[in-house]
Amino acid sequence: MALQHAIMTALLEDDMSGFELARAFDASLGFFWRATHQQIYQELKKLSQKKLLDSKSVPQVGKPRKILYAITPAGRAAMDKWVYEESRVQEAKDDLFVKLYNLSSDNVPQLISELERRREQVMQRLYLYEKIRRGHYENPETLPIRRKGIYLALDWGTQHGEQFLQWCDGALEMLTSCKDMPT
Amino acid sequence: MALQHAIMTALLEDDMSGFELARAFDASLGFFWRATHQQIYQELKKLSQKKLLDSKSVPQVGKPRKILYAITPAGRAAMDKWVYEESRVQEAKDDLFVKLYNLSSDNVPQLISELERRREQVMQRLYLYEKIRRGHYENPETLPIRRKGIYLALDWGTQHGEQFLQWCDGALEMLTSCKDMPT
DNA sequence: CTTTACATGTAACTCGTTACATGATTAA
DNA sequence: TTAATCATGTAACGAGTTACATGTAAAG
Question: Where are the domains of chain B?
Fold first, then answer.
C-alpha cells in the first residue's frame, strides 16, 4: 500500500492533479516507487473516498480542466503514522539474476547483450541523478531537513548505480572469457 | 511471469516437490525472486497444466507423500526462449526511500532505527553469502559455466549489500547530526 | 501429549499491468 | 489536418499477499 503513501508524500509539498503527479513520479519519487498514470488515478480516487485527500475541479485557460488534489489533516496524520510503522523488507525481484542462474554456453552472448543494455540504462539514470544533484543538492549539510532525506535517497541511487556498473564490468569480463573459450 | 521461470530454473537442476522448491527458494534463488509456498504451489499447478512440467505422487517412508515435479522437453524449450527474450527493466519499489522523502525533525529517530534494522538484516544476508561463497564458489574461474552465472548473481548480491552498508553509515551520521541540532 | 518438521492446498483480497477509450487545445 | 501535449479515465487480467485449513510422522 505504499503507492498511496508515495502519492501523499508528493502532495505534502504541493497540491497536484493526477497528471502532474504522474510527471512528478517520473522526475523524482518514481526512482524509488514506480507507478503508471492509470494506477495513480485509481489510488487518488481511493484516497479521496477515504477522506485522506480533497479534490476540486480546476478550469484552465488553453488547457482541459484538471482535478487538483490536496492532502487533508487526516491524510497528514496517516502519513505521520505510516513513517512510524515498521516497513517490510524490500522484495528482491529481478529477472536478470534468475537468467544468470540459467547461464549456459548457448546463451552467453544473449546475457552479454542484456548486461550491456542494463549498463546503458543505469548510466543514463546516473547522468540524471548527477544533474539533479548539481541543480539542487550541492551542499547537503545546509539543506532543510526534508530535503536532506531526499538527498540521502538520491545518494543511495547514485551509489547503487555506480556499484552496478562496477559489477557489470566484472561480469562482462567473465562472460566474454566464457564465450571465447567454451567448454 | 518470472516466478514460473524461476521455478523451472530450479527444476533444471533437480526434480523437486513444492515443499522442496520453497526451501530451495529460501536458500538461493529467492535472493533474487522471493516467493511464498502458496504462490509456488499455484504456479506449479499452472505449469503442469501447460505441460511444461510433469508431476507424480511419490510415497515416502516416515513422511507424508509428496508430489515431484520434473521439467518436460517443452519446459526446457520455454526456458531457452525466455532467456533469449529481453527482460523489462527492474522495478524500483522500496518504502524506505519514500519514507526518507518524508524526513522531518519529528521522525528522525524513527528513521534512524529503521536504518539500523535494515543494516542488521543486510549484514545477516552478507554473512550468508559469504558462507555460500566459501562453501561453493572459492575459485570462480574454474567453475562450470552454469555455476559461473550463479556466482555472478551472488557476487552482485554481495557488492550490493556492502554498498548498502556503506551508504547506511553515511546516512546514519547525517541523521544523527540532524537529531542533535534540530532546526 | 505436545511440539516440530514435513507436506499441500483454498479463498479472498490487494496491487500492478496492459489495452482500450475519450476528448480539449495548440502549433506546424 | 495532423501531430503533440494536456488530461482523465475503464475493464480485464495477472501477480502477489494474507488468512485459513488440513493432515502425517517423528522426537522429546
Answer: 2-84, 95-180
